[in-house]
From TrEMBL:
Gene3D superfamilies for the chain: 2-enoyl-CoA Hydratase, Chain A, domain 1 (3.90.226.10), Lyase 2-enoyl-coa Hydratase, Chain A, domain 2 (1.10.12.10)
Gene (UniProt): menB
Residues binding hydrogencarbonate: Q139, T140, G141
Transmembrane segments: none
GO BP terms, alphabetized: menaquinone biosynthetic process
InterPro entries reported in the protein's UniProt record: ClpP/crotonase-like_dom_sf, DHNA-CoA_synthase_MenB, Enoyl-CoA_hydra/iso, Enoyl-CoA_hydra_C
Protein name, entry field: 1,4-dihydroxy-2-naphthoyl-CoA synthase
Pfam families registered for this protein in UniProt: ECH_1 (PF00378)
A GO CC term attached to the entry: cytosol
Site feature Important for catalysis, where: Y82, Y243
Domain of life: Bacteria
Role of this protein: Converts o-succinylbenzoyl-CoA (OSB-CoA) to 1,4-dihydroxy-2-naphthoyl-CoA (DHNA-CoA).
């Protein structure tokens, strides 16, 4: 594939091919476990992808064939969170989860190998998941003294059902890609050597679709699960559209021209 680097980072790769961005966790020596730095780099790369109008679809993956992500790097876990260079304990992966949810473009997780712990929650919050046949999914929190009681539990229950979600967390079992597919946890499974081509082909299919339609579908589905925060995103999208209408512009123009607005000229559809 013909990827070009958008920006250099220490812990991630940030690349682009046409309108598709790819963000790869680049710590294969620890199965792509993340530190506060890894997460802050991902937050920046996702923010750039959100703001760049030439990017329409984002792929999140891990470098190498052995792991998508094995969660928080336990070697830097301190009192109250994961410790970076500033010595402040953080759980900044929660900010990244929210960003992936609100970014108004499809985000695809491309999973090869381990998708475990907080890494598996990242996979979960992506809009779609394309897995290689060597992918393995699971949560380890109750084994290693951690848990994600936010999206990692509540949203998981929405996606695979309460009984299965409780099994995932209470038993800490590992599930094959095929088992994950049968649970509705992921979208498809393909042979490892085809996973990138398949992911690109799904991305290219979405590039042919109306971006505003995809944006509203994503926001609507998330509003259902994210409560008022989800509704805020959906409402913001509606406001953005309203600003582009003559009716919206009339209000602003009337104010600036110090006259009464003439809203009568606009149709009132049933
Ligand atoms: C993935 C596993 C099952 C793979 O096993 P395998 O193939 O036998 O490989 P290993 O030899 O174990 O691993 C290879 C090398 O990679 C290191 N490594 C792997 N995972 C991690 C990790 N997460 N942190 C640090 N190092 C890791 C190994 O140590 C080994 O290194 P060497 O060769 O030097 O020995 C297996 O590796 C495994 O079980 N990994 C740990 C998975 C895990 O428990 N992850 C953490 C789970 N918790 C979170 O992710 C919390 C996320 C979070 O931030 C959060 C979010 C919301 C709310 C709360 C939290 C919270 O912190 O609790």
């Amino acid at each position: 594939m013909n990827w070009t680097t958008i920006k250099e980072y220490q812990d991630i790769l940030f690349e682009k091919q046409g309108a598709i961005a790819k963000i790869s966790i680049n710590r294969p020596q620890v199965h792509n476990a993340f530190t506060p730095l890894t997460v802050s780099e991902m937050i920046e790369a996702f923010t750039i992808s959100r703001d760049d109008a030439s990017i329409s679809v984002i792929i999140l993956t891990g470098e190498g064939d052995k792991a998508f992500c094995s969660g928080g790097d336990q070697s830097v876990r301190g009192n109250g969170g994961y410790i970076g260079e500033d010595n402040i304990p953080r759980l900044n992966v929660l900010d990244l989860q929210r960003l992936i949810r609100v970014i108004p473009k499809p985000v695809i997780a491309m999973v090869k190998g381990w998708s475990i712990g907080g890494g598996n929650v990242l996979q979960l919050v992506c809009d779609l998941t394309i897995a290689a046949d060597n992918a393995v999914f699971g949560q380890t929190g109750p084994n290693v003294g951690s848990f994600d009681a936010g999206y990692g539990s509540g949203y998981l229950a929405r996606v695979i059902g309460h009984k299965k979600a409780k099994e995932v967390w209470f038993m800490c079992k590992q599930y094959s890609a095929q088992e994950a597919l049968e649970m509705g946890w992921i979208n498809t499974v393909v042979p490892l050597d085809q996973v990138e081509a398949e992911t690109i082909s799904w991305a290219e299919e979405m590039l042919k679709k109306s971006p505003t339609a995809l944006r509203f579908i994503k926001a609507a589905m998330n509003a259902d699960t994210d409560g008022l925060a989800g509704l805020q995103q959906f409402a913001g999208d509606a406001t953005m559209l309203y600003y582009t209408t003559d009716e919206g512009k009339e209000g602003k123009n009337a104010f600036l021209e110090k006259r009464e607005p003439d809203f009568d000229q606009f149709p009132k559809f049933p």
